[in-house]
Amino acid sequence: MLFFNNIRFQIAAAAVLIIIIFDYLRNPHLKLMSTSAFRAMLICTVCNLMLDISTVYTVTHLDTVPPQLNRFLHQLFIASVIMVLFFNFLYVLILNRNQERLTKRTFGAVIAPLAIAAAVIIAGKLEFFASDKGAYSYGPMADMVYVCGLIYLVMTFGIIYSKKCTLSSYQKISVQVGMFIWLGSLVVQRIFPTALLSGLGCVLMVLCVYFSFENQRENYDAETMCFNRNAFHRQMAEYYANRKPLSIVNVTLENYERINTMYGHEYGRKAMLCTKEMIDGVLGGSVFHSRSNTFTVFYSDCEVDCRKLESLRHALCSYCFPDAQLEFRISVIDLRKYSNGTDEAYELMRFMKEYGKSSDEVICRLDDSIIEKKVRRDKIDKLLTEAVQNDGFEMVYQPIYSTEQGRFRSAEALVRMKNTGDLGFISPEEFIPIAEEKGLIMDIGDITLRLVADFAKRRTLTDKLEYIEVNLSGIQACAPELEGRLTKILAEYDIPPTFINLEITETAALDSGEAFDTNVSALRESGFSFSMDDFGTGYSNLSQMNQMRYDLVKMDKSIIWDAFGKGNEKSERLLASVIRLLKAINVKIVAEGVETKEMTDYLTERGVDYLQGYYFSKPVNEDKFLEVISA
C-alpha cells in the first residue's frame, strides 16, 4: 500500500508521457540534429519514469531488496534525471545554432557538468528513508541533481537571453515555463521530501518543449501528405550547417497550373498526390513539397542511383491519369559540388526548373555545361538591370505583307538590348523570361511601347500602316490597371490605341485568370486589338480563343515549315485544315516564317491575310524598315 501511495505523481506523469509518445510516433519527423536530441531526451524521460517507479519500490521494500540493487537503481535514476536536463539544454543549443554541429570546445563545456555528476554518482553517499508517511532518498548523490539542474538551467537561460538568440518569443517562453516547472517540482520535493515530483516535473518540461518545437504540424502539408516548404528549408539548412554531402532529386509536375485551370483545384491536388505516391514507391525516403508543383527527395550520398531514376521516369511517364496527361520533369542536383550555401542552392533549383522547360530530356542532371548556361543567364540578368536603368533597349521592326492589298500594311515590333557584353546576340526569348522572374517585365513593357509610339509619331506611321504589333507577356496581361498604363503612354505621343495590336501567346492566355479577362475587356474598349501568337505550338484551345475574340491569329512557323519539308503530305493537309478552320471562325490569319516564293504563293492562294518572314525582310532598324515598306 505504501508503494502505491508514493507513485501517484508518477502515474500522472506516465499518462502525460504516453500522450506525448503517441502523438510523436504518429507523425513523420525531419532528419535534424535537434530531432535526434529531442528523441534522446524523450527516451531518457521514459527511462527516468521507469527508474523513478522502481526506486520507490526498492525504498518501500528495504527489508527485501538487496542494498546493492537499491543503490544501483538509484544511481541510474539520478543519472537519468541529469541526462534529461542535459539533452533539454543540448536541444535548445542546437536549435539556437540553426542545426550547426558543435565544436569540440563547445561540446566539452556542455558535458563538463556530466563528468562531475558521474564521479559523484559513482562514489557519492546516499541515504534512504521509509515510513508510513512516505519514502525517499537523500545525501550528496541526490543533491547532485539540484547542482546539475541549476547549472543547465543557468546555461539554458544564457542562450535565451543572449543577443544572438534565434528562437522566437513564443519558443523562449515555452523553454522558460518548462524549466521553471521542473525547478518548482524540485523545490517542492526539497521542502516536502515525500512529495516525489521530479518525474512529473521532467515530463511536463518535455511537454512544453514538444508542443513548442517538435509539433510537426507546422512542417506538414496535409494536401499532399508530406513535409512542406518550411520543413524543406529547415532540412536544407541542417545539411549545409554540418557540411554533409548532399544531392537532391526534384520531381516537377510541369502542367500542374494548367490542370488546375482546366479541371479545378481538387483535380490538381489529386494529380500531386499521385505524383507523391509514385515517388514514395520508387525512391523512398522523406518527400518534401518544396515548391507549388515540385517534390524533393534528399540524398546524403551525392551519387543518386541511376536505376531508381529510370524506374521513376518510367513510372511517371506511363501513369494514366483520368482526363489529363501528366507532364513531368526530374532534375538531379549535386548541391555540395555546385553550391556553398542555401542561397546558392535555391538559385540552382530555380535555374534547373527553368532549364528543364527548354530541355527535351525528362531527367536533367546538373553538370558543368548547365552551369555555363547559368553563368550566361546571370550575366544577362545583370545586363537587363543596367538596360532598364540606362536606356539600354532599342526596337527593330519586321514588315508584315498584306496579300489582299499586295503591300506592307503592318509590322511586328521586337525589342533588343543595346549592350550584350561578350554574350553576342541575346534573343527576347532568352531575356524576357529572366525579366519576368526579376520583376522587370513591366518596366520593359513601358519602354517598348514608348519606343514604338515615339517612332510612330516621328515618322507618321499611322498614315503608312494599319497597325504595329507589340508583344504582351502573360505577367503584363494580368497586371492591375494595365489599360490605364498603356493608354497614358500612347496619349503622350498622340498615338491612338487602334494603331496598336497586342500579341499574346496562347499558353499565356490559357494559363491566366480573371485579371487577364478584365484587362482584355478594358483594353478592347479603349481600341486595342489582339492577336494570338505562336498558334499551333501550345494547346490551341479553340473555345478559349473564341471566347476572347482575337482579331488576328499568327500561325507558328513550325506548322508552315513542316508542310514544305520532305515527306510533307500529312503536314500539308494539317496546314490546309488549320487555315480552313481559322477562316471558318472569321479571324484574320498571319503566317510567320515565310521564307520562299513557294510558301508565299501557297498561303496567298488559300486566303491567308498576312505574311511575315525573311522572304520579305528580316527584323530591321527604323531607317531600313522605312526603306522596305516604301519600296
Blueprint (SSEs and pairs):
Blueprint: H1 2-5, H2 8-25, H3 33-60, H4 67-96, H5 104-123, E1 127-131, E2 134-138, H6 140-160, H7 169-191, H8 198-214, E3 220-221, E4 226-227, H9 229-241, E5 247-253, H10 256-263, H11 265-282, E6 287-291, E7 294-299, H12 306-317, E8 328-334, H13 335-338, H14 342-357, E9 363-365, H15 368-389, E10 393-402, E11 407-417, H16 428-438, H17 441-458, E12 467-471, H18 474-477, H19 482-492, E13 500-505, H20 506-511, H21 514-526, E14 529-535, H22 542-548, E15 552-555, H23 557-563, H24 569-584, E16 588-591, H25 597-605, E17 610-611, H26 622-630
Parallel strand pairs: 8-9, 11-12, 12-13, 13-14, 14-15, 15-16, 16-17
Antiparallel strand pairs: 1-2, 3-4, 5-7, 5-8, 6-7, 10-11, 10-17
Helix pairs in contact: 2-3, 2-8, 3-4, 3-8, 4-5, 4-6, 4-8, 5-6, 6-7, 7-8, 10-11, 11-12, 15-16, 17-19, 23-24
Walkthrough of the structure:
By secondary structure, the protein is of the alpha/beta class. Helices cover 58% and strands 14% of the residues. It is built from 26 helices and 17 strands. The strands form four sheets. Strands 10-11-12-13-14-15-16-17 form an eight-stranded mixed β-barrel, surrounded by six helices. A five-stranded mixed sheet has the order 6-7-5-8-9, sandwiched between helices. A hairpin with a 2-residue loop joins strand 1 (127-131) and strand 2. Helix 3 runs antiparallel to helix 8 (198-214) and helix 15 crosses helix 16 (428-438). It is elongated, with a radius of gyration of 36 Å. The model has no long low-confidence stretch (mean pLDDT 85).
